[in-house]
Amino acid sequence: MSKLAFFSALALFLMVADLRLSLVSPLRTAVATLLYPAQWLVRQPVKGVEFIGAHFESLEDAQQKTKDSQAALTALAARASQVEQLTLENNRLRALLELSVRPDTKGLTAQVLYDAADPYSRKVVIDKGSVQGVTAGSPVLDESGVVGQVTRVHPLVSEVTLLTDRDQAIPVLNTRTGVRSVAYGQSGPSGNELELRFMAGNADVQEGDLLSTSGVDGVYPAGLAVARVTHVERRAESAFARVLCAPMAQLASTSHVLVLPPVALAQPAMAHDDVSPSANTRPHPRER
Fold this sequence. Notes:
CATH architecture of the largest domain: Beta Barrel
Oligomer: single chain
Helix content: 25-40%
Strand order of the largest sheet: 1-2-5-4-3-12
Radius of gyration: 22 Å
Number of helices: 4
Distance between the termini: 57 Å
Shape: globular
CATH superfamily of the largest domain: Rod shape-determining protein MreC, domain 1
Number of strands: 12
Structural class: alpha+beta
CATH topology of the largest domain: Thrombin, subunit H
Number of domains: 2
Largest sheet: 6 strands, antiparallel, barrel
Mean pLDDT: 80
Strand content: 25-35%
Order of helices and strands: HHHEEEEEEEEEEEEH
């Protein structure tokens, strides 16, 4: 009985010490590094099966995919021509206002290895870590929009918290109205939703509105697609509207992502600027 009490007290002490002082963090990093070769080896049979399955796809399937790809390319070409025109107009406006164009930032491509084991969170693990230059707080994108944010970095792998995680929040801008707000992770029936909280009942927000990053948090570059409004509920008994959004990124099926450095790190250091971005920082609800 005394041994049970001793080891229970020791376990409690270690948990509190790890929470407050991060004593076990070096051990966790070492274990993640040591397990990476085993994880890579275990995934090879799966890759082999996927390769064989792709090899035996039917000709009709391949032709249909080709037609879909051609249609998508046609749509992208039309959008590209519009983007070039808008970029030209934007550059002219910047020149008139004597504004400097923000320098381009280079991203790092990564592959999604697997979902994190924690059933109460929405996280994935990618195959790039601190050795490749990934830093905590880095924005993560796919071809459709923002996926999430790097919240834990190991030497060879990193953990990405998705936008729909209950502890995530991201400042957004309604591209139709120009109004800023904050989108929070929302555990819906599909586990793939965002919610605009603290929106006034008479706020100008409609289903179909596109939300992009506002760029005011020093983490996400401005103008990245985040979500589209799917449901607006205005209740007479409440001063706030309930606004639900669907992420633009393919959170459940994306396999390759782009990791960008946080905006505050990509920009030149400013004098008297002692504020550094931190991973998984929830903005204040009134920041809009």
